[in-house]
């Protein structure tokens, strides 16, 4: 990992209530970028979205590991790519306020704990990077093994004919409520819009996503999306295929973060959709997760 470590700070009340989306010197986003979720689904904490920083490396890597499990991908390198994209993407962290007597334990937790991430890996710009090459190899391998021939053909067509592809990362601990995804995804969409004015490679044609799903052992026809909002992504996807990861360790589904104590079989669903659909999908998600 390269670059100096930057100290994050929580925004003041006046900053949080403002309408600015600008980035501060510390790397903390204000205004619409600040996300507050109090007393929602037993989560009694305040969270905020911040742009990824070097100290978030291990938290981001842990979240990526929830998706990829034992897949042969250099997640350290992919985490570095996400951190290096200045102005694109956000991590979800707990906000502790600006108290001067904040103790050292709280400060350490604030720096290390990453509860979620919404970002995108620019696959076209980094096509020569080993972790991106590994990603494409994994996509090809999984589609050959689990997708029917027509879907395999569509995936090959998208990958070969469309160079501006983005791997959309939407991941968090499973006991963080889905409502928090809306401001994070909206921020990501706005950031990509700003970035593509400077760098045309961010004018994505398609997004690729990996969704965590599971099926009840008692009713395998029942599909449960670990991140509720990804059901909307899946419904609006142009293509997709699913596969079981029951033989791989997955603490994100079977461990201490699971909201319901039920026996499930973990799956992954790979989807691809036109980038032009993203804003409409986010609007649908906002209605879907509305209390």
UniProtKB/TrEMBL annotation:
Pfam families: BCCIP (PF13862). Residues 1-29 are annotated as: Disordered. Residues 1-10 have a biased composition (Basic residues). InterPro entries: BCP1_family. One of its GO terms (cellular component) is nucleus. PANTHER family: BRCA2 AND CDKN1A INTERACTING PROTEIN, BRCA2 AND CDKN1A-INTERACTING PROTEIN. Belongs to the BCP1 family. This is Protein BCCIP homolog. It comes from Diabrotica balteata.
